[in-house]
Batch of 4 targets.
Target 1
Amino acid sequence: MAKKSKKQQAGGTPATVALTAAGVDHTVHSYEHDPAHPSYGEEAAEAMGVSPDRVFKTLVADVDGALTVAVVPVSGTLDLKALAAAVGGKRAAMADPVLAERTTGYVRGGISPLGQRKKLPTVLDESAGAHPTICVSAGRRGLEVELAPADLATLTKAVLAPIGRG
């Protein structure tokens, strides 16, 4: 059984533990998750009072048989064709949710691009660079982390590409 750090024991998630271990400046935002809300990302933006253009959702797709993480603004959708092209693939489709949860170690609506159980190739929508900070899931529903897009890209080794549609 893996030993948990004091931070994890105190309620930290693998994502927040990874940020702290890397010494990255970040702010954790917590809010009461409403299971009846139709969109996890829009709920986060509303609860934090942040523009949906600055709140990014983490989606897991299958690109030519390989799971790939896409991080796009909640105000838009993922362009699967652009995602495939960004990683040198031909075809992309949304991954099976159960497989995405098992592979990342997070539940749907709480999948973070950080601290995943298995590190997956990651593509961050280039619109992130237009903001000094963006928010992504901190690893559970009702918990977001705000950080500089460059720090997110560095920690996840993300490719920046135009994968979102507005």
Target 2
Amino acid sequence: MIVTDELARRACADRGLKVPEEISPAKALTLAESDVADLGSIVAAALAHSPAARILLAALESEQTVPETAVRDYYDRNQDRFLTPDALRRGVTPFDGAAPEDVRPYEEVREAISGELRRAAGHQAFFGWLDQARADVTYSHGHEHPGDPSHPDHEHRH
């Protein structure tokens, strides 16, 4: 987490992004369980405690462009996510003949889908940045993370 925070601080400085010097534990970001599962525990912990990592993630997210065709394709392939509350109460599924009125219109959900896809692309960009940024990091002997494949005991379990 400390290495990720330092790398993120350097990346923010390179991009001209302002990062608060410190954050109080009371103001630390709380991540939803689904975010922890999506991000992985180390990245989620770094984002929870590093303002620089969060600012960098937000910047990377804002740089993502989601083509309209990708948004529409997502909508068409995931009709189960856009059933109306009434259709859900009746037990309708898109796999057994949902009527057009059972599915929320594309125009109604388009922005939410675009935001979700932009967020996912931002996460991918963050992971790519982090992998590249960590490539040149050398840990002092004895301070390697047990999950690091370069560590001799990388299969260590807690």
Target 3
Amino acid sequence: MAGTSGHAESGPFAGLEGTWSGGGSVTLDDGSSERIRCRATYRVSGPTMAMSLTCASDAYKFNLAADVQAEGSAVSGSWSESSRNVSGSLQGRGGGGNFQVLASAPGFNADISLHTSGRKQAVSIRADSQFRGANIALSR
């Protein structure tokens, strides 16, 4: 059976468009972990995507935004985190809803993994700063 792709689901960011919500946990540099609630919004236009991810617990919050562009399987762009006033560049690889990128800024690096399967999405962030990481499960 031959597969066909519809134009709405073509491109490297196919299947991400829209709003996703869920939760997970964030780990801080002192080793403590907190449950977080998250909402992600993806705006896809061909080989480009604008993304926002807001996560919060009772005591912790982050607001991540990114603008990325794909050329083949290479992904690059910029990101910012508004509550800490930090921004930098993104570089990585991926497609088909699965991406592995490095977010960099002066004094900060984070590995971000995004895996999408149908209406479920897993986001993993590993950093080398006071924010050690997050594991987030989203759905729509």
Target 4
Amino acid sequence: MGQLILIRHGQTEWSLSGRYAGRTDVPLTEAGEAAAKALAPRLAGRPLAGVFSSPLSRAVRTAELAGLTGVRPDPDLIEWDYGGYEGLTAEQIRRARPGWDLWRDGVVPGDTDHPGERLEQVAARTDAVLGRIRPLLSGGDVAVVAHGHLGRVLAVRWLGLDASAARLLGHPHPGTLGFLAAEDGQPCISAWNVP
């Protein structure tokens, strides 16, 4: 059985400043492009049974620069819709809402482009992605280029845990890899936040 290679897109201006970029299509910075290119040697030569990406340009561009081909954009891989918190930092949100925690408290509704999404909705999307990917793993590794919070939810759902357990994983740095595998027939995380 192959591994699910989870790739977080490279750095953007918003990831650098800690702003929540859910549905906003923020481009990679020069450093983000360099980090994406640096992934290419690590991914070269792997027999990939499939490559999927969030349709947002920061993920699609990361896949391209990392040398991945045959990339299939998947709308279920788009980042959490942060609603009214889109573009804000956690510090800004906590000034208005002391003690706020994304995993416990979620988001507030935003405008029509950013209506907001509950954690359960994000989990349902990652479950759908995993349902499409699992059959492919018998043919080799599958690469997924996505986002930080969505990637954490995908990883814990891979493990069969409640989506709220994603708070227990460190936030993957931009341009890093995670490897989801199986050991003795049980799902595991074999590596996380690998540059």
